[in-house]
TrEMBL record:
Subcellular location: Cytoplasm
Keyword flag Ion transport: no
PANTHER family from the UniProt entry: TRNA THREONYLCARBAMOYLADENOSINE BIOSYNTHESIS PROTEIN TSAE (PTHR33540:SF2)
Stretches that traverse the bilayer: none
A family per Pfam: TsaE
Main localization, broad class: cytoplasm
UniProt cross-references to InterPro entries, sorted A to Z: P-loop_NTPase, T6A_TsaE
Keywords: ATP-binding, Cytoplasm, Magnesium, Metal-binding, Nucleotide-binding, Transferase, tRNA processing
SUPFAM superfamilies xrefs: P-loop containing nucleoside triphosphate hydrolases
Protein name: tRNA threonylcarbamoyladenosine biosynthesis protein TsaE
Record has Cell division as a keyword: no
Gene Ontology terms: biological process: tRNA threonylcarbamoyladenosine modification
A single GO cellular-component term on record: cytoplasm
Lineage, uppermost ranks: Bacteria, Pseudomonadati, Pseudomonadota, Alphaproteobacteria, Sphingomonadales
Amino acid sequence: MIDLPDEAAALAFGQRLASVLRPGDAVTLSGPLGAGKTTIARGLLAALGLVGEAPSPSYAIVQSYAPPEVRLPVLHVDLYRIEEEGELLELGLDDARYDGALVVEWPERVAAHVFPDALRLTLIVAADGARRLTAEVPTAWEGRWPLT
């Protein structure tokens, strides 16, 4: 379990995550509203070179970033409004993984088999307001996890 006591810690975690992110990776972020999913994604994107704050993809569903804006193409995806797994086909997420990475919020809105090799991060909000992060680490992430 990783403690993220405040927003700065969540941003810093996202920055550390960016340092090991590779083309083909998928990272999923689960947790209740306000748990810090987008904050972690913002830290990751800033570390990849994004200038300014990344908008939440809640309404757009997919926010794409590509060089020279960032060093690695990334699709930041929010599946909260997805109602059927078939809607994912229209998003082209598999194609994006050939040369980039996915950061997916609300992955529980689709079946687990959709992102079988993803680094699955789950956030909870503790009684003191701090966030606690747990991870399910797939084989593809061995040697990169835990982050240092």
